[in-house]
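Recall that a protein's primary structure is simply its ordered list of amino acids. Everything else, from secondary elements to tertiary packing, is in principle encoded there. The following example makes that idea concrete.
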Amino acid sequence: MASAKEIEGPVEEQLDSTDLSHMKFYSKFGRIEDISSRKANSTAQSSGSINSTKMDPETARCLFEEGAFLIFLDVPEKTEFGIDVSSWNVGEKFKGVKMIPPGIHFVHYSAVSKHNVTAPRTGFFHDFKRKEVVVKRWDRKNEGLDTLPVCAEESERYASSLQNLDPFLGAYPYDTYKRWISMSRWITDITLLRLVPTGPNGCIFAVQQLESQPYVCLSRSESPSRKRTKATLPEMKVSEETRIRFSDLSTKRLCRGAQPSDITSMNMDKSVFLDHWIADELHGSPAEVLGEVQFAFVCFLVGQVYDAFEQWKNIVALLSQCEKAMLDRPDFFLDVIGLLYFQVQEIPKDFFVDVVSQENFLTNTLQSFFAIAEHADGVDERLRSRAGQFRKYLQKMFKWDFSMESNEDAPVVVDL
């Protein structure tokens, strides 16, 4: 286990040049052993007893001394509670989780009725510091996290009595920690500051939270039946403070005022849009693109947020059509391949297949990526080689065919 000095280091990733399944991780808690490839249909959630995690005594001791604690008070029995990629139905004595490795984690929960009906999921991200004690309370009336913070005095009281609370705290599922790091290593405090909703606790909801609009006077010219409909059905809209603040990937702003030929060129090679996004909205940090890809992925896979799935698809599609950027940013696109390698393993093989057209979104999208990375002139040889490995891996593991061209995704040429 790493020493206290080593724990301060950032997360670092290294893909072996000959094997995409070989990866080494360094988290805020130190080095995690090498990951070996897992079955591609691994589930998004682990289940079982919250105390079923097995680890060696030295790891357990270090985690208990250096790890963080989440005290979650008054959670009803049978509530579905989870952290990162694991979840459980808690017992009556549950009071939280101990031995949480320092770093960013996603805590989520769902109320369960007496008839065993599970409510939509709610969650929040938190960057746990070493030895931090976070205290939250369940709101029985609203069946979720209390919007009022626990007072400092009460939090300090629980922090000073961790030994007494120990029998009521479940151990962090360390056997899934490698998976979580592979899914979240690019998410930073800056990523969370940009994207997390502004509402209480920064909660992320699987179902959109609606609020009614102020009553609007009806026009005299409207029919009586329409007036009655408006009077009985309040106008609703999504609560802005609960909305995830994803980046606006609309291309209309850059295209406004451009010549038709320039618009055609920009839509054939979307490097201009990527460069604009990085320079103007992400303060010149390409890593924040990767952070948003992972943030969206976690929100839809674990948080069950459909809008996050759409954002994830849009970013992957954008990154797959950037020829000039691949020439200018080879290291960035090497990281893109590593990121996607782990993400595709978390999803069932047929997840991306459209039920109507039977076309696979990811196959069609990555087809453009591989065409550029493997065949465009001037591409970094490391990127060319890694893209070829990734394509062969997907073909072998998922039986995906990247040889067929999609007419739907072909660029539209604007004639002058």
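The first strand starts at residue 12 and ends at 15. The two ends are 65 Å apart (CA to CA).
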